[in-house]
Amino acid sequence: MTANRRSWPRATAYLLPFLVGTAIFTVYPIVYLLIVAFQEDYNILTREFSQFGLSNFEAVLRDPDFGNAARNTALYTVIVVPVTISLGLAIASLLARIRFLRPFYQTALFLPLVTSSVAIGMVWKYIYNADYGLLNFLLSTIGLDPVNWLNDPRWNMPALVIFGVWSALPFTILIFVAALQSIGEQYYTAARIDGATVVQRFFRITVPLMGSTIGLVAVLNLIDSSKVFSELFPLFNGSPGAGFSLYTVVYYIYEQLSAEWDLGRAAAASLLLFAAVLVLTLLQAVLQRTRRRRS
Amino acid sequence: MRIEIRELGRTFGSAPAVEGVSATIEDGEFICILGPSGCGKTTMLNMLGGIIAPTAGTILFDGVDVTKVPAEKRGVGFVFQNYALYPHLTVAKNIEFPLAIERVPRAERRRRVREAADLVQVGPYLDRRPAELSGGQQQRVAIARALVKNPSLLLLDEPLSNLDARLRLEMRVELQRIQREAKVTTVFVTHDQDEAMSISDRTMLMNRGRLVHFADPQELYDDPAELFAATFLGNPPINQLRGRIDDGDLTLADGTIVQGIAPAGLTVDAAIVGVRSETVTLASTAPRARARVEDLQYVGRDVYADVRLGDARLSALVSRREVDRSLVGTEVPIGFDADGVHVFDAESGRRIR
């Protein structure tokens, strides 16, 4: 470190606003959450509690509502992440080949990221509308019966999954296109000389060379989709779907707070969700390392 | 495989990269395409490999027109300048790649990978990744990958340019051995004249997209078809005397006359006479002119003499026994060996004699 002694009070002064903000809005809540999760019978008004213990976790894990929420969240994640990755990879590979369209799709892909979720919700409500929605119209053109996407408990999850994939795709595609462009053209020429078809080149060169990027995007999407909750507002007016079919972990946490005023349980459920994502992320990292070592 | 190239051309936009190249490469020959950068030699190679489509002319492999056959169906082996080894695959898997694509049975695959690896001597490194190999080893792996499918034509794009000087000399010899053992028709691109001279059976010398001269390297040096060939090959570069030739006598711009440098009876208004430095003799018994010795440079066993002949400067390669320092600043009779003197048309660069 070559930072000179005189410059560092100044540096601290510059950093202070940011550090204070982080401390108040990030560090303090995390520490507070960690503590509250282990405080039994916490009273949100008086801040009193009986003792430190695991009763909050026990209550959450025994709660059938939490079980339902965990199942729904897992189902959502298990479908959304692989579908997003495969679709994203396919679309990115095609887009990367069409050079002259690049300025167009780079803008188009960013639109969902910068558009108000209310506007997006309006559009999707129209798409999903049972009587005059676009999706049902498309289904009818191939001879399928209309589906009550937003009010039928069997179709709520598919509706949310489609919306989730649609929301996650732009970011995924942008990252993939960037990664694809960093793969040297000469590998493809070499493979072509060796007789590899387009499909063979994709699976034998593109996919392995994109391995670490795919892993990274998978983790980011995993973290994102495990927190599925806000998507319920534009589509379902904040209800957890017909018959609680979209009751997710974050919805459970939200309910513990807003309806039950049980900060302890909310904190415990948050920690459990965090632990699950952490385990999956580490698992992904380990898998990738062994795969790299093996091949 | 016998390769016939007929009137081959390629333009990028409106700029021609290769123009009207015709040549025939015999089965099993080791051919170098030599030329300065931008002369179209890599474009030529890519057209032979099917990576770039020609805009004019035809290419025949053993009499079959392959001009429109794509790279993947030509069955050629290609070694890229930067090797293009797949970074995620081991050496063995890299070499095996073309066979895996061809769906060659596993046992045969293993045998052929082994053979190719032994041929280029990378047997001990089969389990390593390209990143764990030196440049020379990567080069060998790239050659093995190109040879493993028994191509009828092996193409190499400046394969030695990324190696250090010593390794380059070593790989030249290696390449010759590998080519002879594999008995494969080989085309090799380089901008290095020594490489082309030492390695190839015949050399295609290219300049500005045109094929200047296609011959064995010694002929290229001894009998250049154009001034460009004479100047591109040889070190030091060939001496050039500009002037008028009248019945074999050359008159330089300042009036200096060099007698009988060209054959008697030859008359050219504007000529460039190319003289190889090793064919210049000082203190000649059959002098053509008198010239002033300006400097002597001792380079090991050779001496280069800087000579002023009228307004022209010549470099003469002479032996140490012929000269000593006392010559510097004096005028000496100067002579030329007839077989090192070439007369070119100053305008077109074509060789006249």
From TrEMBL, chain A:
Pfam families: BPD_transp_1 (PF00528). It comes from the Bacteria. It is found in: Cell membrane. The keyword Cell membrane applies. It is a multi-pass membrane protein. The chain crosses the membrane at residues 12-38, 74-96, 108-127, 157-182, 202-223, 266-287. Residues 70-284 form the ABC transmembrane type-1 domain. The keyword Transmembrane applies. GO terms for biological process: transmembrane transport. GO terms for cellular component: plasma membrane. Its main location: membrane. InterPro entries: ABC_transporter_permease, MetI-like, MetI-like_sf. Keywords: Cell membrane, Membrane, Transmembrane, Transmembrane helix, Transport. Belongs to the binding-protein-dependent transport system permease family. This is Sugar ABC transporter permease. It comes from Metallococcus carri.
UniProtKB/TrEMBL annotation, chain B:
GO terms for cellular component: ATP-binding cassette (ABC) transporter complex, substrate-binding subunit-containing. GO terms for molecular function: ABC-type transporter activity; ATP binding; ATP hydrolysis activity. It holds the Pfam family ABC_tran. Keywords: ATP-binding, Cell membrane, Membrane, Nucleotide-binding, Translocase, Transport. The keyword Transport applies. Residues 3-233 form the ABC transporter domain. This is ABC transporter ATP-binding protein.
